[in-house]
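thread: overnight batch results

M.L. [08:02]
morning all. the overnight job finished for the chain we discussed friday. pasting input first so we're all looking at the same thing
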Amino acid sequence: MDELKYDFLTEIQGRWQADLLKSYFEACGVDVELFQESVGQHIYPTTLDILGNVQIYVPKTQLTEARKLLDEYYNPPPDESEDVKKPVKRKSSSVAKKTSRSVTPKSTAAKRKPK
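M.L. [08:03]
and the structure it wrote out:
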């Protein structure tokens, strides 16, 4: 008997999500086969319950690469172009304290009547 060339990678709820993953894997050079219950796909398209489940299979030779790509898909690395830095704590100065106080404009203060 011939040995299977594909291995199970994951199961996704909904054909549209599976199609997105397939496009992502194929763009990265990984061959993908999708399997779904035919009733859930063709006769009465649905994403509910077991009829909406789509199984994703990849070649055994690309399984480890596909698992890494799947992890990156769900947990993307932070964008390196953006500077992700912790805010620097600065010592408070008297200038910062003076500007942070609320100041009543003179025009409204003159209009107020003393109590």
